């Protein structure tokens, strides 16, 4: 009796998971197993893809101690009890858990090492912020002009090609630390690839390059920042596909006049980003293209609808008063997914409880799916939590309900269960992966 390709792949994949065999071992034995199950040669490619996808999806992830620490720090509550009961479970990847620039709490953002760390911590989707070089190659950087804070460019000869290079007085003292500006558009992709990633930081009062670069916040670390490997956008696609995760590229706003060099228009830039997924054979269902520029979103919806149906409008207005009527105009334009910062989605009621904001309620009524950002990007929550928590930490006049590190899970629970977000960007995806697994969010 012949088994269908699906059930054969499923049976073999379960065998892989249970035995912890490597894919190489399975691939070696594949012809023999196919013969035993009566598979036709034409089914081999499909079987390999199913097997690889299953293996990656259900591979064990490694969360490290942080999520467990955060649960222990929570005030006593039914939520804490539920999260505690998940401590000994097997954790797997979840698309609810999105690696924001990889895992930049401890790894240099948008580097190979940061992306790998995010995938190992169970991020089911990882972000590459996309910009372009002098020769119009797409690369992964949060901003077109952040090389001076995120790479070692200032200690290389390429520093002299920067938009605003470092300047020194007669005694060799750095005199323009606050003005230095280095952009990907200052250099070619070949030159870009010679650089190394570092933790995003700069001391704008520095009087030397070493002092300028040595500015990592004390709640982050340089332990893993010895040498970050920079990636082109195409290289990020290859890496993330090999890691078994999906993609959320953000088209960053150019900081050069467009059309760049007379012929590289905004539309060409937006299309080129999607084309690199097509060239890599990536299905549109695995890609969530993002932009703060509403025109980019509408372009994708109208000109490349297969990718446009998952286009994410990053609402950067930071306006709590966006009306239902305005959101309905977004829906009428074809927008299906929005992503405001998490504080926009939260409020505190008269009882001192974290609840969905009116913005969140409007988005749900309009039928919009919601992703939000960014967990684990602030300093210690006992010290207020900063910008990302402003509607729940007293900064906007509401009651301050944030006072310990465990409150990160209280916030995440409201976002997931009451606001109904479908994904959470995090600078340390292990925290979100832990929650997603405990709440069975895939």
UniProtKB/TrEMBL annotation:
InterPro entries: GP_PDE_dom, PLC-like_Pdiesterase_TIM-brl. Keywords: Glycerol metabolism, Hydrolase, Signal. Gene3D superfamilies: Phosphatidylinositol (PI) phosphodiesterase. Pfam families: GDPD (PF03009). Residues 1-24 form the signal peptide. It catalyses: a sn-glycero-3-phosphodiester + H2O = an alcohol + sn-glycerol 3-phosphate + H(+). Residues 95-392 form the GP-PDE domain. Its EC number is 3.1.4.46. Belongs to the glycerophosphoryl diester phosphodiesterase family. This is glycerophosphodiester phosphodiesterase. It comes from Litoribacillus peritrichatus.
């Amino acid at each position: 009796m012949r088994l269908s390709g699906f059930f054969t792949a499923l049976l073999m994949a379960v065998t892989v998971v249970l035995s912890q065999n490597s894919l190489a071992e399975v691939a070696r034995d594949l012809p023999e197993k196919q013969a035993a199950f009566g598979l036709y040669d034409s089914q081999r490619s499909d079987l390999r893809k199913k097997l690889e996808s299953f293996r990656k999806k259900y591979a064990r992830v490694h969360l490290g101690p942080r999520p467990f620490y955060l649960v222990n720090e929570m005030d006593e509550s039914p939520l804490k009890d539920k999260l505690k009961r998940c401590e000994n479970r097997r954790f797997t990847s979840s698309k609810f858990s999105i690696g924001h620039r990889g895992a930049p709490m401890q790894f240099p953002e948008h580097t190979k090492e940061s992306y790998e760390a995010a995938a190992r911590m169970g991020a089911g989707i990882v972000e590459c912020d996309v910009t372009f070089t002098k020769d119009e190659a797409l690369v992964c950087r949060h901003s077109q002009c952040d090389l001076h804070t995120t790479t070692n460019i200032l200690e290389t000869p390429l520093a002299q090609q920067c938009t605003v290079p470092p300047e020194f007085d007669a005694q060799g003292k750095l005199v323009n630390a606050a003005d230095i500006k280095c952009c990907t558009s200052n250099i070619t992709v070949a030159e870009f690839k010679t650089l190394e990633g570092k933790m995003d930081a700069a001391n704008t009062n520095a009087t030397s390059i070493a002092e300028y670069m040595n500015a990592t916040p004390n709640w982050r670390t340089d332990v893993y920042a010895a040498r970050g490997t920079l990636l082109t956008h195409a290289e990020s696609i290859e890496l993330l596909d090999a890691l078994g995760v999906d993609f959320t590229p953000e088209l960053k706003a150019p900081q050069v006049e467009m059309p760049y060099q007379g012929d590289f228009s905004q539309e060409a830039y937006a299309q080129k980003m999607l084309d690199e997924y097509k060239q890599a054979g990536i299905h549109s269902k695995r890609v969530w293209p993002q932009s703060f520029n509403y025109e980019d979103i509408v372009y994708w919806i109208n000109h490349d609808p297969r990718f446009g149906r998952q286009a994410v409008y990053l609402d950067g207005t930071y306006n709590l008063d966006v009306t239902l009527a305005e959101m309905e105009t977004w829906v009428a334009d074809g927008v299906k997914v929005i992503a405001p910062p998490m504080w926009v989605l939260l409020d505190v009621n008269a009882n001192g409880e974290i609840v969905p904001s009116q913005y969140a309620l409007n988005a749900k009524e309009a039928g919009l799916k919601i992703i939000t950002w960014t967990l684990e990007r602030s300093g210690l929550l006992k010290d207020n939590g900063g910008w990302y928590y402003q509607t729940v930490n007293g900064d906007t006049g509401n009651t301050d309900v944030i006072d310990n590190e465990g409150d990160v899970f209280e916030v995440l629970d409201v976002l997931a269960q009451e606001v109904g977000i479908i994904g959470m960007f995090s600078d340390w995806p292990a925290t979100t992966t832990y929650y997603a697994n405990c709440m069975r969010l895939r």
